[in-house]
Design goal:
Blueprint (H helix, E strand, L loop, with lengths): L2 H17 L14 H17 L2 H10 L5 H21 L4 H8 L4 H10 L6 H6 L2 H13 L3 H7 L5 H8 L4 H9 L7 H5 L4 H13 L4 H9 L3 H6 L1 H4 L4 H14 L1
Helix pairs in contact: 1-2, 4-5, 4-6, 6-8, 8-10, 9-11, 11-13, 11-14, 14-17
Amino acid sequence: MTTENFASQAEILKLARVLGTAPDRLSYLENVDAAELQAFREQVTDTLFDANLAALERMAMASKLVPSPILAKIAEKVFGPLLCARIAGLVDVSRGVDVAKRLKPQFLSDVAAELDPRRASAIIARIPLDTVVAVAGELVRREDWITVGRFVGHLPDPTVRRALGVIGDEALIRIAFVLDDKSRIDHVLGLLSEARFRGLLQVAAADEDLWAPVLDLLTHLSEKRVEQWSHLLDELPSALRERVQETLDQAS
């Protein structure tokens, strides 16, 4: 399996989520360039979010008349997660943050699963740290790796560092595989201790289902990071160590 297959497989998982279908139904796309799949996924997302845009803008304007505590109740009891996700990118940032921090983590997790983070990046970056950590924990409990992966690129380092505390090693590997901004992988892993990274590799070594995600993760490490942790890679079982070296050679 080539490194290109890794990228395309990850994009197929995310595209299937947007289309509401099983990834197996899109397996015929595995040889399509990952960048083209990503562009198509973003076009589909834009089409969905721009539908009924005028009505959504009117709702966002009307929401300014309602106090934040009441609006949060309306959001949970009346609007529901899908409508909240559609409106999120249309409201004033400070207003959106004020409402978001009043929502229950479970409901906010439902909204996050429906949200296009590109449209609400400023709100996401300002949501209180404890709220983000609670939502991250809930999404991990649901094994919703895709939603967590979509948000990492929109969060400041202190928030990411705290969120890593509620994300287990297997979960982190699976999230990294579907991360929207793979250029962030090296930086995020740089926030980990050496002991934590060793734990990631040990978890992957014990479960062959994690080999592809961890190999993909390693291809996005900088040369400096690979050199820094090369002694950890040498600790891997021989079969996985050979796959790692082969994958890194392909990526270089």
